[in-house]
Amino acid sequence: MADSYRGGGSFIVGETEPRRIATPEDCAEERHRLAAAAQAFAEREGPLEGAETGTPEDEGTIRLVRRAGEVGLLGAAVPVANGGLGLTGVGLALLAEALAPVWPFVRSPVEQAEAGMLPLALFGTPEQKLRWLPALTSGERIAAYGAAESDIGSEALASGTSAALAADGKHFVLNGCKRGVANAGGADLFVVFAKVDGTQLSAFVVERGTPGLTIGLTESERGIAAAPVGSLFFEDARIPAENLLGEVGQGRRIAYGALNVGRFKLSAGCVGGMKEAVALAAAYANRSRQFGKPLSAFPLIAAKLADMNVRTFVAESVVYRTAGLIDEAASAPGSADRDTPKDSDASDAPDAPEDSDAPEDSDVPDAPDASDRGCRAAEAFAEYALECSIGKILASEALEAVAAETVQIHAAGGVGIRDGKVERICGHSRAARFLEGANEINRLFIPAALLRRAIKSDLPLIEKAQALQQELLDSPPLPLSSASPEAPLAKPGAILSALKKTFLMVGGLAVQKHGLRLEREQTIVAALADAMIDIYALESALLRSGKQALRTAGASAAAHQADMTALFAEEAAERAGTRSRTILASLERGDELLLRLSALKRLLRFVPGDATALRKRIAARVVAASPNGPE
Questions:
Q1: Domain ends where: 407, 439, 471?
Q2: Domain named Acyl-CoA dehydrogenase-like C-terminal: which ranges (predicted)?
Q3: Which of the residues 436, 519, 539, 570 is marked catalytic?
């Protein structure tokens, strides 16, 4: 029977039944219609291909934001009561994925306008929401988000912008500068972060035209020019006290609360980009001929198409599983009254070096009203912040790999990448790895967040690791495992179980050796994060495939998903072995190392599957489903 652990990181110690997860195949028809309508609008308005090479001041970008607001596509995460669509998990994923091929999804003007609304939607007072959100969601006014500075990047916690309460008690005086603010040239208000009295990070809404605010010239970002960026300069800018978001000192909560949503939406956008890239590559491989036959007929090209499809399938499975968890948490009765993660201190969190740029747990303030949809959504995203980071890393890096292979397939046909869609995907794929928190920062966050939950007794991580140590001492060697035609998901399931045990063994040893100072060992922490990513990804694909197999119709889809899951499992097992040996060699020496390596070998004792045959079957289906494919 599956364990009933819930909440962020529970996949490491628990099990889930296929029926309990959300998959793209489950999406309600009306949500598909919403995504189709959004895509049709974006295609009608123009995919902003011209803005890629046009001037940053192109008014078309601002016009697009206003038109999106007019038809109700702004403020997807804003509560309906405030003029938004009120979407949380699956709805946000569908919308972000649908818009990815037609809007430059990692830095589009529409996406950045929504980023400026999020802090207000999640943390604003009723008065602030009523004052600003209706005009923002309608496109009448445009918001922007300012956290980055020259010397700190996007690390809001290290903000050098200062704020001080004026003598009249009715204003805060801001001094400093924000860089790289998307939509700066056309935005009407900005959410910015500054430190009150030099220590208390706080969030403020600053309206255009505020005395002391100067907006610098807009400029293009390399490869992602569709949303031009600018700078904000504050020189004794007087901000009304009622423009403070939350309370003084709650800036961290607000920054990471909005960041969780941004990471999730970015991962969904990456899935949309991957689907577009796979479709473009397969169609081109089918119609382009070399040596008398289509490119798709060559095994090396077919293998690329198979790997691209597997990456897309796995990332999509992760995004929609996480979306379902977020929806479930946001809709749970009394969710706004649940205990939420609080600021970590030395008593309950591993120490980090003074110059560490690893983020703390995402956090939200106590909800004042259980009926507040914004508060419930903020809690839900905070609860699954770990999974949002996993999705962001997995999808952005998969997109970059898929984009590179799309270019390679086009080049293999004798042409370069001077194709608007291919070129756009290639440029934006690189940006996805550093927006919404660089992937390196997200990797440091994932194991740290899991360890904090274990220390707080939210997850029985330590108990599971101790039980595994005894199991490894008492149990006989694990039997060899190979694929079975009658049970195609049995071996992936066995590999998943082995990956979880391997993580507990290696991660438990790392904690035992380094204690609460483990966060200083960033290479080990990053490797443990990669282990968690593989576990969550494989489990998500496995559960989705299992759920598809339960359906009375769609046997061919079930077989296709099972093959993709099996191929990913084979590769994940290989990565786990290499990664774990490297970590163990850094933790042990001599006979102790040999003992640990022996246990690792027992855990990962599998007969290799025929990855070549899996790729051939996957590629054949991809090619057949693409335009100009074989009859």
A1: 439
A2: 499-602
A3: 436
